[in-house]
Amino acid sequence: MVNRLGVLTDPSNLGDQSHWAFVYTDYHQERRLTLYAEKRGLAPQAIHLVKLYLPASALAGAAAPDGKGETDGKGETGGDLEKAGMAEGEKLHAQGSVDLTSEEYEFTLGMEGIDAHARLAFLERGERNILPLPPLEAAFGPSHQPATSFLAPTCQATLGSEPIDCSVAESGSVKQLVLGKTTRPGARFEISYTVRLRLPSDPEVEVADGDAYLAGLFRGVGADYARRIGLERSRMTLFTHVPVIGASAPADPLPPGAQSAALFEPAEAVALSSRAGQWSPGDERAYRDLTAATPELVARREASADRLTPLEVHVRLPAQAVGAEPGLLSDLGLIARHVLSSRATDADLEAASHYLRELLGLLAASFFLNWLLVLGWYAAIGWLLFLVDKIAGTTLLHEVIVPRDSKPFHPTKGFVFGWTGILVPMRLVWVILAGLLAAVVGLLRLHPYLALYLKKKGHAYVAPEIEVATFQKAGFVPDLAPPEAAVVLDRPIKAVNLLVLSLQQKGAIQIVSRNPLQLRILDRSRAAGGPEQALLQALSPQGTLPAAGVKAVLEALSADVRAQMWRADPEATARAQRRWADESWTIFERTAPSQRRDLFDTYYGSLYLSDQFFTRLDATVGTLPPDAPLAGPLEALASSREVHTAGGAVERVQDLAEGVVSGIENTASATVDRLEHMFDFDNRPSGAQQATGVAIAAAAFSGYDACHSACHSACHSACHSACHDACHSACHDACACHSACHSACVSSCAGSF
Question: What single-letter DSSP state applies at residue 719?
């Protein structure tokens, strides 16, 4: 295109440029081909020269100095094109420096933006027909975010007293003022230009003294633009768009008692006055007591002594004056504070109503679209939580997304309608925080001293010389482990069974046989606490648990229970353990059959405490054959065997546990009572008791045989002896011996051990 127009360039001259290009520019409603040349690092007072050769045909009428064209036989000769009016100038150039003699700035703030106007007067020390656009700075917030122009600047210029053309040329991000005539040394010229500025998109609003403020900085040109040595006049005026309460316009200065929300730094450097305000309905809603006659605050600063420093004004404006919005939480806090202090405006009430409508709309939408949110959470993180649950044996999927006891319609547990979906992020954050805390505690436990400090500590037990009823605290329920809870519920054999299953899960033992009980020790170091260690120490070389071993285990358990129950409420504790067992069964029965196995191995301790354990287990899981591998608690407790009843029938042990236990209960009770009365505490029969001993033994034979067959003599020989010998007078005085033996019998039969 350039070649076709016949434009020629000087290659060596273009090589001297830092950057050059042919571009189209708009000038006075015309589109012109323009050579843009840029040179960086010029020395002071240096000349930037660009050579360009245009065809004579492009300048038809180019004149000699008198403006008339001449020819030399080869074509037209060149003349002073500027003088002839054929061009804006022979070249755009700026040489030498200028002195700033006067500066006036006006910033007019409003809801739509800022109108910035500057009038600058200069004394020319060189010559030029172009100069950079004077920088007017308006910045907001603590980080001084700059306002940006969104309309092209306009300018006017005078050279001496003669108005001359002035235009704004833009090349990339650089804007220049192009003058219609070239200035000469000693000439005075003045430029005025106006630019429309837009506030930053998200200014940083500050909250102070119950109101939202936007910090603003307004600054004129500095010494890097023009020398300020001969500055004669310096003024900046700020029309704040902030009302003045207690004054009438115009007022210069403000009368005493007049109040305005704008704050200036330093206050003594700014003169305040007012002018007639032009308010919109939005302004009337944002300010209290605002009327059409309320004036607008005007701030003016004039430089007097120090004119070498750029003129600037620092102000904190009410955010609503320039349409700035605080953050959601800050805005809600301001509205609440204004309402409580009786300073609420119509804008506050409208904002509160808006937030309330949005909240209600969000709640309604999330309630009816809950199923979609739940599906989205399953797709986003459900699969990951499922894998974690399978690997770690946790229940994060149900804890985070939908609880196990979920319902179609429920505020917090509904999987169709509800607010379960919007609660997932909070649950997820809680799980993550809990996991991080657990990880930190786990790392701290690696240090032996910290591990000792972090170890859960029970109440220190001091055996009292005299038991006083006031030691018990009504309603106090200690935190008991499942074996300890079984002891409190008078289920000693269940306590032993739970110890065995706990050691199996820890990898300390292997259950070789269930009936009779035979164990193999795998790793003694995995056993924790006195009862577990006592059980391992009490095993015979063949891995069986003799009667003396049962006694030792029960004594260890009793010691642990006494340390926690010395001030507890026994009845409340028993009720709490039964309630815990029933709630665990409720959750287990509502769980999908495919997930019950993992849940059982986690909660078997509470499930096994229920007196309806085998009935509910048979209804939910079913029975396993007696030769089922003893891989875990479920196989150990759910496998069954056939037994012969007193009537000759053959039943499974689970069914027998409910139907036959009552018969064992009556007979075993009579057996223990009568045997207890036949002997004194030194095991010597009395005369009266010898007379009826044979008849009693014959009457009790059936009950004793049932206990002996079911428990292999553990009930009478171990449990009764343990209660009698270990607890001695306390057991006898509290009538606990009969209860302990009877419960041991029932638990042992029901547990199939």
Answer: I
Residues paired with 218 in a beta bridge: 138, 313
Q: Of 363, 39, 319, which is closest to residue 207 (Cα–Cα)?
A: 319
Q: How many CB atoms lie within 10 A of CB 287?
A: 21
Over the stretch 140-195, which tens digit does the pLDDT of each residue have? 988 888 988 877 788 999 999 899 999 888 766 778 899 989 999 999 999 999 99
Place of tokens 């115009």: 250
Tell me the pLDDT tens digit for each residue of 542-574. Answer: 888 888 888 888 888 888 888 888 778 888 888
pTM of the model: 0.47
Which residues, other chains included, contact 541 with Cβ-Cβ below 8 Å and sequence gap of 6+?
none
**Residue 261 backbone phi and psi in degrees, to 5:** -85, -10
Q: Could you tell me the CA-to-CA distances from 472 to 475, 478, 564, 577 in Å, in that order?
A: 9, 12, 11, 18
CA distances from 716 to 448, 670, 710, 743 (A): 44, 13, 11, 11
- Tell me, what DSSP letter sits at residue 469? G
- Please tell me the CATH code under which domain 95-321 is placed: 2.60.40
Q: How far apart are CA 525 and CA 542, in angstroms?
A: 20
Contact present, 159 and 138 (Cβ < 8 Å): no
Phi, psi of 96 (to 5 degrees): 85, -165
Chain segment 40-68, per-residue pLDDT in tens: 888 776 778 888 777 766 665 554 444 45
Distance CA 198, CA 147 (A): 5
Closest CA to 316 of 297, 343, 330, 344: 297
What are the structure tokens assigned to 731, written together?
């057991």
Please choose, from the candidates 239, 240, 216, 242, the residue with its C-alpha nearest in 3D space to the C-alpha of residue 145: 216
Name the token pair of 449. 């001293």
Count the alpha carbons within 13 Å of 434 in the hemisphere toward its beta carbon: 9
CB-based contacts of 24, cutoff 8 Å, min separation 6? 31, 32, 33, 34
What DSSP letter does each residue of 232-277 carry, written as one string? Answer: -EEEEEEEEEEEEET--SSBSSPPTT-EES-EEESGGG-EEEEEE-
Q: What is the pLDDT of residues 329-352, one digit of tens each?
A: 888 888 888 888 777 888 788 888
What residues have CB less than 8 Å from 320, skipping those under 6 apart? 212, 286, 287, 347
Q: How far apart are CA 389 and CA 402, in angstroms?
A: 14
CA distance 173 to 176: 10
Cα three-residue angle 382-388-392, rounded to 5 degrees? 150
pLDDT at 2: 67
Closest CA to 6 of 78, 65, 59, 62: 59
User: Is residue 322 packed enough to be buried (19+ CB in 10 Å), middle (13-18) or exposed (0-12)?
Assistant: buried
- Side-chain half-sphere exposure of 39, counting CA atoms within 13 A: 13
